[in-house]
Design goal:
Elements: H1 4-15, H2 31-43, E1 52-55, E2 58-61, H3 73-93, E3 96-101, E4 105-109, E5 114-115, E6 127-131, H4 134-147, E7 152-157, H5 167-187, E8 192-194, H6 197-205, H7 220-234
Parallel strand pairs: 3-7, 7-8
Antiparallel strand pairs: 1-2, 4-5, 4-6
Length: 236
C-alpha cells in the first residue's frame, strides 16, 4: 500500500508468482492517508453518501484514487463497497504488509477536516497544505501495527521525487519519512523492518540514466533492480 512505486514493484512481484494485493483504494502518497485506509480495512466500515464528492459531473471520494470515479453516486458506492469487502478479507489473510511512503506533505480539506488521499482537482482554496512531523507519522501508524503485530510490516520510502514541493521541500519530506520509519522500527523491532528502496536508487545507482525523462520517476530497469533486491530481502 502506498505510492505509485508500490504498484510498479508489486506488479513485478505478482508476475513472479507472489500473491500480492496492491492499493485497494488506489495510489496513496502520504502516511496519514495510508493509516486511514488501513483503519478502514480493520473495521470494514462502508462508504456512505457523506463520503461522496462530485467532480466534473462524476462521483468519487477523498479516500480514493481517480480511477474509482463513476457516473453516479450510487455506482461509486456500489463499486467502492464491493471492493472494500474483498479488501478487508485480503488484509485479514495477509501475513506481510508493505507500506511505501511517498511524501510527508498532505492536503487537509478545510470544511471536512480530513487529510485527503487525492484532491481530485477540487479548487486549492478548499485545502490547507501541511507537512506531517515524525511524531505524527508514528502516532498515526503505531496503534495499527500494535493491533496487528502478528503480521510482518515492511516500510520503505519511495525514491520518486515530488518536485512540486520544491527540491528542498522534497528533501525535508523524505527526511521526515526516513526518521519516522526508523522510529517505528525501533518501537516494534519484532515485526517492523525497513527496506532501503530510496537509498538503492539515490545512493547506489545514483545516475540519471535510471530515471525517466521527467527526472522524477525511475526507469523500468531501475524498478526491476529494486524489485530483485526486494525479493532477496523477503527471502532472508
Amino acid at each position: 500500500m502506498g505510492s505509485c512505486f508500490t504498484t510498479e514493484v508489486g506488479s513485478l512481484l505478482r508476475e513472479a508468482g507472489l500473491p500480492v494485493v496492491m492499493n485497494p483504494f488506489g495510489i496513496l502518497f502520504n502516511p496519514a492517508s495510508i493509516a486511514s485506509s488501513l483503519r478502514r480495512l480493520e473495521t470494514g466500515t462502508p462508504f456512505t453518501e457523506i463520503d461522496v464528492i462530485r467532480r466534473d459531473g462524476r462521483y468519487v471520494s477523498f479516500y480514493h484514487h481517480g480511477h474509482f470515479v463513476r457516473d453516479s453516486a450510487e455506482a461509486f458506492l456500489r463499486d467502492a463497497n464491493t471492493g472494500l469487502v474483498q479488501s478487508v478479507r485480503d488484509f485479514e489473510d495477509s501475513d506481510t504488509v508493505v507500506l511505501t511512503f511517498g511524501t510527508a506533505w498532505v492536503y487537509r480539506h478545510k470544511e471536512r477536516g480530513i487529510i485527503v488521499s487525492n484532491c481530485h482537482k477540487v479548487p486549492a482554496r478548499e485545502f490547507s497544505r501541511e507537512r506531517l512531523s515524525v511524531d505524527e507519522v508514528v502516532e498515526q501508524l503505531s496503534p495499527i501495527i500494535s493491533r496487528h503485530s502478528d503480521k510482518k510490516w515492511i516500510l520503505t520510502v519511495s525514491p520518486i521525487r515530488h518536485l512540486s514541493d520544491g527540491l528542498h521541500g522534497n528533501q525535508l519530506s523524505k527526511a521526515t519519512l526516513l526518521l519516522a520509519c526508523e522510529a517505528l522500527q525501533e518501537k516494534f523491532p519484532a515485526c517492523v523492518s525497513y527496506f532501503p528502496s530510496y537509498e538503492i536508487l539515490i545512493d547506489e545507482l545514483r545516475d540519471y540514466k535510471y530515471y525517466r525523462e521527467n527526472k522524477t520517476h525511475p526507469t523500468q530497469e531501475a524498478v526491476i533492480l529494486v524489485c530483485e533486491r526486494f525479493r532477496e530481502f523477503l527471502n532472508r
